[in-house]
């Protein structure tokens, strides 16, 4: 996590305090030290803590596989592992060749089509990127390169992802800077095998012009996801949340 001017405003301070409190509770429950997750994972702490509470209160099985789509450096997955099975397998899909996430890295951008895509990176901030052509941050998306994009269904059927060998239940975490629905569409029928989907649902025009919450709910309902909970909404004071981390799961 990089510090910005926002983090020193009243809204930013309240948000950071809330995250750290959630992170403290999560780490204490797992017998871990909070300092091991600071600063990189601070922004993921509230969602990760509420994920654990959802598992406990619903008497739900811990995930044994985490598919981290848009992994970055595994900020969220490091925390999700505190609620996963002890030997959980992690497969990280991250097209940014400069980043090294946890587990088995697949340097592919998951999407709803196969081929190549322009992976763009902010000129001022090279620790993330997107293939979402509609994304524009102050007109500053200048750097980038071609990456392979693929449907997860294609990778599974070609044997590039060992789907049958993945321990269940499977948690699919998706944070792809505007391409989240494309990832779901590209997973197709294999969503039937997934127990949990933790997805960042965009809620601002410049971040999520491709879809809205209704679209996500409709897709997942088709594949048997019958429960949903908002784990965290990005608080920016009087403005509407820029995004929400939303958990979908199957009751049975």
Describe it.
The structure is a single chain. The protein has a single domain, classed as 3-Layer(aba) Sandwich (Rossmann fold). The strands form 2 sheets. The chain has a 7-stranded mixed beta sheet, with helices on both faces. It is globular and about 45 Å long. The N and C termini lie far apart (37 Å). It is α/β, with parallel strands linked by helices and 252 residues long. The protein has 6 helices and 10 strands, in the order H-H-E-H-E-E-E-E-E-H-E-H-E-H-E-E. The protein has helices at 10-30, 45-57, 75-80, 152-157, 180-187, 213-222, and strands spanning 65-69, 89-93, 104-106, 109-110, 115-122, 141-150, 170-174, 196-202, 227-233, 243-249.
By CATH reckoning, the class would read Alpha Beta
What is the CATH topology assignment? Rossmann fold
Separation, N- and C-terminal Cα atoms: 37 Å
CATH architecture classification: 3-Layer(aba) Sandwich
Number of H/I helices: 6
- Unreliable stretches covering 5 or more consecutive residues: 134-138
SS strand fraction? 15-25%
Number of domains: 1
Helix/strand-derived class?
Answer: alpha/beta
Computed over alpha carbons, the radius of gyration is 17 Å
**What kind of sheet is the major sheet?**
7 strands, mixed
The secondary-structure element order is HHEHEEEEEHEHEHEE
Strand order, main sheet: write it out: 3-2-1-7-8-10-9
- Kindly state the percentage of residues in helix: 25-40%
Q: Tell me, rounded to a whole number, the average pLDDT.
A: 89
């Amino acid at each position: 996590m990089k510090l910005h001017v926002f983090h020193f405003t009243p809204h930013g301070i309240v948000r950071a305090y809330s995250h750290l409190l959630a992170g403290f509770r999560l780490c204490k429950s797992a017998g871990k030290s909070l300092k091991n997750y600071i600063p990189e994972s601070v922004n993921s702490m509230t969602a990760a803590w509420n994920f654990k509470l959802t598992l406990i209160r619903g008497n739900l099985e811990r995930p044994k596989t985490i598919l981290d789509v848009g992994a970055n450096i595994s900020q969220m997955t490091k925390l999700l592992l505190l609620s996963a099975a002890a030997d959980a397998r992690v497969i990280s899909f991250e097209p940014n060749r400069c980043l090294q996430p946890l587990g088995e890295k697949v340097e592919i951008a998951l999407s709803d089509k196969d081929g190549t895509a322009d992976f763009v990176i902010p000129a001022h901030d090279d620790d993330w990127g997107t293939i979402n052509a509609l994304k524009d941050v102050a007109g500053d998306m200048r750097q980038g390169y071609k990456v392979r994009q693929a449907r997860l269904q294609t990778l599974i059927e070609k044997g590039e992802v060992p789907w049958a060998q993945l321990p269940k239940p499977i948690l699919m975490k998706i944070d792809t800077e505007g391409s989240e629905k494309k990832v779901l569409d590209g997973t197709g029928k294999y969503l039937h095998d997934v127990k949990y989907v933790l997805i960042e649902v965009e809620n601002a025009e410049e971040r999520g012009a491709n879809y809205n919450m209704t679209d996500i709910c409709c897709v997942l309902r088709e594949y048997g996801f019958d429960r949903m909970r908002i784990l965290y909404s990005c608080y920016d004071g009087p403005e509407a949340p820029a995004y929400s981390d939303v958990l979908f799961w199957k009751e049975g």
